Amino acid sequence: MSTFAVPERSAGSRVAIAPPNPSLPRMINSSSGSAPRAPMSIEEADVDGDVLADLALKLANSVPRLTTQWAAEQLRLSMQLVAEVFDKLRADNLVEVLGQPEEFNFKYSVTERGRQYSQRLLEVSGYVGPAPVSLETYRAMLEWQVERQPPVALNQIEQALESLVLPREVVEVAALAATSARSLFLFGPAGNGKSSLGRLLHEACVGDLWIPYCICIGSHIIRLFDEQCHHAVPLPGEIHTRVDQRWVKIKRPLIVSGGEMTLDELDLQYSESLRFYEAPPHVKANGGTFFIDDFGRQRMPPSDLLNRWIVPLEQQTDHLTLNTGQKIQIPFRLMLIVATNLGVNDVADPAFLRRMGYRLHLDMPTEESFTRIFQRYAESAGATAKPEMLKRLIARYTREGRELRASEPRDLIERARDICRLHGRPFELTPDILDMAWAGYFGQIDALKR
């Protein structure tokens, strides 16, 4: 049980002290923060002993022989706990002891009975790896961490967004969404910074998070940690050996889904070959940000996707389905950002918009903003954008009836860099180079012949 402080009180006063959540793991407090403490017994491990025994037996059956130390490393459990698990397997005649290479470290092999039983276990679940934590412990730990995440200050938002040229009102609304951890709906014409704003807003939300490698519901294993999505944070040596290795310390996650997303991906993904589940993207985003980009471009009606989020946004809990038909409740504690360049009325209904924390319209830049964006990017690229050249460029937009887009200064400058590199000349922005960049970007090659 984690410790908690009791405030002082004067004589005769009453102070109600809420007990700590019994599902919260025991914690280690150090100069580098709090961490879940390694369990030393099956009783402390928060999962059924049979789950650990079955997992250990499947691991043992994957190699000719193994040691207590090697099994502890693979299962991410303490040697003391693993020794207790293997004592249970040995008592059931599922493994046998081959020797003791060193103190507290035994060598084991699987018996014929253990091999047969392991094969039956693999038919139910093929998962072999770090031991799971219970869904209840994951929920308690996530809630505990979310409540203690460092607040985001306005100056942090301003610094994160300083690479974008945005009106002050836009920065204010974005800061409100981030500091309140409410959801944000971004809309407006394509190419004006919605994707960049969503990603940079997440970067302003600093802090780390402990997540488990996997969670279990009975014998069902759901893998949560994903090396493609989560960035592990190294642990200081002072606490590394005392930490529950079933948990990984990560940077607050940013999970981005675009037009390729389907409704099925938002439920548990069961692998018939591996026989365990992969958590959906928004569960992997818990404690961080889930960014749905290009909303309305998915291969499903927008209303279906909107209806999918109404309950989680309102209750901070999502309902997922196991392949047995059993429904489970899992936390939905994240900042949801939705971005679209389609008309709001075409992709969202009032019921959904009412549940979004904030809405933000990113319109086309003014001529002044476009000029600032172009000059800023040119300077960062090591070139100079002369005022007369920019006036000529904006006049061309007007003449051809093109809308100004905040992304196009970068695109045109990078193509100008390509042109200079092709011809072996120093990188510079001149009218003739910019004309060629324009032609290649907008597909007006014939204009160069005139």
What does this structure look like?
With 450 residues, the protein is an alpha/beta fold. It folds into 3 domains: 89 residues, Arc Repressor Mutant, subunit A; 169 residues, P-loop containing nucleotide triphosphate hydrolases (Rossmann fold, 3-Layer(aba) Sandwich); 83 residues, no CATH class. The chain is built from 17 helices and 19 strands. It has a 5-stranded mixed β-sheet. It has a 5-stranded parallel β-sheet with strand order 12-15-18-7-19. Strands 3-5-4 form a 3-stranded antiparallel β-sheet. Strand 9 and strand 10 form a beta hairpin. Helix 1 packs across helix 3 and helix 16 crosses helix 17. It is elongated and about 85 Å long. The N and C termini lie far apart (80 Å). The N terminus is likely disordered.
Name the descriptors:
Rossmann fold; alpha/beta; Arc Repressor Mutant, subunit A; elongated; disordered N terminus; five-stranded mixed sheet; 450 residues
Quick overview:
This protein has 450 residues and is an alpha/beta fold. Helices cover 39% and strands 18% of the residues.
Helices and strands in order, then pairings?
Layout: E1 27-30, E2 33-36, H1 49-60, E3 66-67, H2 68-75, H3 79-91, E4 95-102, E5 105-110, H4 112-124, E6 133-134, H5 135-147, H6 154-160, H7 168-180, E7 184-187, H8 194-203, E8 208-212, E9 214-217, E10 220-223, H9 237-240, E11 247-251, E12 254-257, E13 269-270, E14 277-278, H10 281-284, E15 289-292, H11 302-315, E16 317-321, E17 327-331, E18 335-340, H12 344-347, H13 350-355, E19 358-361, H14 367-381, H15 387-399, H16 408-422, H17 431-442
Helix pairs in contact: 1-3, 2-3, 14-16, 16-17
